[in-house]
Design brief:
Layout: H1 2-8, H2 10-14, E1 34-39, E2 42-48, E3 61-70, E4 84-93, E5 102-104, H3 108-123, E6 136-141, E7 152-158, H4 169-177, E8 181-186, E9 193-196, E10 200-203, H5 211-232, H6 241-244, E11 247-257, H7 259-270, E12 276-280, H8 287-291, E13 297-301, H9 308-316, E14 321-326, H10 337-348, H11 360-380, E15 397-400
Length: 401
Amino acid sequence: MWRKRVGALGAALTLITVAAVPAASAAPAAGTTAAVTTTPGISAVTGIRLSLPAPSGPLPVGTVSVRLVDRSRPDPWATGRPYRELMVSVWYPASRAQGHPVSPHLPPLVAADLDATSAPALLGVRPGQVDWAATRTHARLDAPVRPRAGGYPVVLYSPGYMVPRSLGTLAAEDLASRGYVVVTVDHTYEASAVEFPGGRLERARVRADSMDDAMKALDVRVADLRFVLDVITGRHTGLPSRLYKALDTARVAAVGFSMGGAATARLMYADHRVKAGVNLDGSLLGEVAERGLDGPFLQLAADEQDDPSWETFRKQRRGWKRDLRLAGAKHYSFSDLQALVPRISDRLGTPSEIVGTIGPVRSIAAQRAYVAAFLDLRLKGRKTRLFDGPSRAFPEVSFLG
């Protein structure tokens, strides 16, 4: 799980922490589609264009990015900065969305950073081979919120270690299309790159191969998420006023990938405002692993060797629990890379091992079905038989424990 990746990917991810360089042009492979995009202050990128699968729910989706400032604590990574600064994206059911532009998958500076550093290190893609800035979501920027009496249940999303929040877009906009408000969080100076208003990019300051930094990052994440909870529940301001009317803060869950899953468990243990949690292939650490949880908690694992922390955690959990395994999946199958890497591999012949052998359509459909069924059950009271045992609809999913 994420602890294994800190060591195994340390050398590659360390490249993410060096300053980005302008992306060099590269000729697209035969049979690929080339595109050229230019953003002020960023070198032109020539490469193939990618797309994301559409959400599976019936509702149109809106999104807005917001800068949040926690003045109650100094930044743990930036010495001398007396406040903690975060970027979040809010995804929500929208109405009259057609007049609003479609949101990009990655902010332009983050896309340029990914092209220059992370993609070559982690994906084997040369700078310029993929036009990362061209990918679009299915959400409309700043679209009006779809009215609903009492608001929508809220889901916090925390990404993997050194992973930007944008790589949780598939999960976020799918849940929003099903009637949730989802808040995805960038953990500044740990995420590979975070773009703030005004064209400011803050890059990672953690050491990818340091377990001490990883453990510190886990503590920081929990504090970040609790602050975002304070903003959502009105203890602190920060969101556009129109969004507060859309939030049902009595029904809050958290979902996390990798270290985000570990942070979700610890958040739920520390803060009873979170009523349910989902861990996507993350190891469990600390007191929560030893003492368990009272509330409902769902875990989805990659098709790899068992994580001993899951067995310990499973025995201590007293609330509703299901631990599932997705056959053929690898760790990054639980991020947006599940949709992107196979397409890049097909067109450029680059490796695809980080998302396993499972077909992306099957993988994404199974993840969406089980996460949504769990949240519908725990936050909306909708009954389901999906957790009674193996399903013919999803033969890739098996039950652990």
